[in-house]
Amino acid sequence: MHRSIAAVLLALVAFAGVARIVHAQKDEPVDPRILAYDKGPAKIDVSKYPPDMQKKYALFSKKCSSCHTIARPINCEYVLDDEWERYIKRMMRKAGPSLISVDDGKQIFDFLSYDSKMRKKDLYQKKLAEAPKP
Questions:
Q1: Pair 90, 9: CB distance under 8 Å
Q2: What secondary structure does DSSP assign to 56-120, as a single string?
Q3: Average pLDDT in the chain
Q4: Which residue has the higher pLDDT, 25 or 100?
Q5: Which residue has the higher pLDDT, 119 or 16?
Q6: CA distances from 35 to 3, 25, 29, 68, 71 (A)
Q7: Rounded CA separation 70/38 (Å)
Q8: Would you call 133 helix, strand, or coil by DSSP?
Q9: Can you tell me the mean pLDDT for 65-87?
């Protein structure tokens, strides 16, 4: 009996934490450029991607849609690895380690980096050519 009550309380605390994250982000003003990304396609056909990338896409979709539309990262102009790294680290800080772990962040990065090179190839090549050389 006590375990059941403890399990329910633990579930409520976890739900409240996620709800707080989502609510806080919904209250933040959103840049019109970002809102435009939200109106684009909300899924990627990954059927021709390698099986490991398909699994990483599923994780990406699940984790990232907890706080904002999945269309946002799908349609944004980020394509370079350093852009994705900054974005994912920011999302990990906002969401917290209970929502996006370091391992989750690495898998999401791997997927978004791969996807950029496949689906956004022209933009990737353009930005790569324009990037400052070390």
A1: no
A2: HHHHHHHHHTTTS-THHHHHSS--SHHHHHHHHHHHHHHH-TTTS-HHHHHHHHHHHHHHHHHHT
A3: 86
A4: 100
A5: 119
A6: 44, 13, 10, 11, 10
A7: 8
A8: coil
A9: 96
Residue type, 31: D
HSE-CB of 122 using CA atoms within 13 angstroms? 0
Decide: residue 44, CB within 10 A, 0-12 exposed, 13-18 middle, 19+ buried: middle
**113 DSSP assignment:** H
Mean pLDDT of 53-72: 96
pLDDT value of residue 1: 60
Asked whether 67 and 17 are in contact (CB, 8 A), the reply is: no
pTM of the full structure:
0.77
* Residue 24 and residue 76 in contact, taking contact as beta carbons nearer than 8 Å: no
Q: Which pair of tokens denotes residue 47?
A: 């059927």
Those residues whose C-beta lies under 8 Å from the C-beta of residue 34, and which sit 6 or more positions away, are 72, 76
* Separation of alpha carbons 44 and 27, rounded Å: 28
